Amino acid sequence: MGHVAVDQILEEVRNGLVVWDAHLRKRIFVFSSLLLLKADNPMHAACCGGQAGNGAVNLCRVCYATSETANRIAALRTIEQTLATRPAAVDSPFFSFPPAEFDPHRSMPLETLHTVLLGTVKYAANLVLGILRDPEFAFLWQYLLAHNWAAYSRPIPKNPRYFRSHLGRELRYVAQGLPFMMVMIEERFPDRVWTVETWMVVAHICFIAKLLYRDSVPADTDNVLTFTVRGLMNLIVASQDEAIAALAVKPKFHLLLHADTFQTLFGPLKHSCATEREESRIGHTKSNIANSNRHATSCDMGKRYAEIVLIRHLTLGGYDPQHPELGRILGEECFAEIQFNTHLRHLLDLPPIADTAKEHGTPSKAIRSPRSRRPIKHRIQDLNGYLRTALQNVRIVLTKY
Hints:
Elements: H1 2-15, E1 17-21, E2 26-30, H2 43-48, H3 79-85, H4 112-129, H5 134-146, H6 168-188, H7 196-212, H8 224-238, H9 242-245, H10 251-255, H11 259-266, H12 269-272, H13 276-279, H14 282-291, H15 297-315, H16 332-340, H17 342-348, H18 353-360, H19 364-367, H20 376-394
Antiparallel strand pairs: 1-2
């Protein structure tokens, strides 16, 4: 698939794209250079520089991570040096990009969801929660239920016993609350005391997650992120604890060594190199596969995704490119319904309704509409009715989208 992806990307970079702008209500031409590629780590690291598997020769695509250089950062490799050390059978098609347009070492930054939240933060949660007993889990669960979540956008909905099933957005709050969980458990159960090494590793991991998920990168950071990551790696390498020492072979920890470099090039990785939005569609994929009774499940998935894209286009007050004279499709009631139904907005992956309304000229009274007291199930049914009516009125053919 790499060869096909490279050919398509090069064609779009050189020839440009013609897309429909729902705000301007006309087709626009987009021409841009290739900035970076977003993918999952550490898999795309294997595609770009290192070999995959537990017996990896190089854990990182940027520098060498051998036994001689396990506790220090080696010199950066050039593309030519990388190609000289790789057999022809494992060369990645991404190296076929012109060097002036794309450098696979620097233009494929670490992706924060899998590297930080589903990687290092989950490892830290395993160190803390993986050794708890049943009474300690019960106490922690009651503590989380009674916790004041006013400062958070949403609480952690799962029992801490099943922390391995947490999603990436839930692990954000695990990273913020893990040190406090440890304090509460040690105060309640005096016989449960974590080692100083475990405390230091957890504190470093949680602080790194905080630095990588901030909205801006201050100019006077003084390399705080780099020093913190190096301190974490030194703790892991020098640890006498087997559970902590085992983290030294995890590629995701080594990728953190270059987080400061990528953050300097691309800005906050939370915005530019995170795939939470793409990962949110996994639920739709699993649901389509489980509920499909056809032999062509991919066809059912394609239709379902087309419906989701169409509904999202309509709920954003989108315009039909084939009939621009119709103006905005949906009415005020639908906008007001979507504003207050946060669960539905999350499923549709919509931006703040106020910003959307301003862009598309929605009357302000739609934003100030009183919240309906009807059950959510009935309100969703009403919204489905609005959408069906809108589809019938504009006669949009699903295959166009």
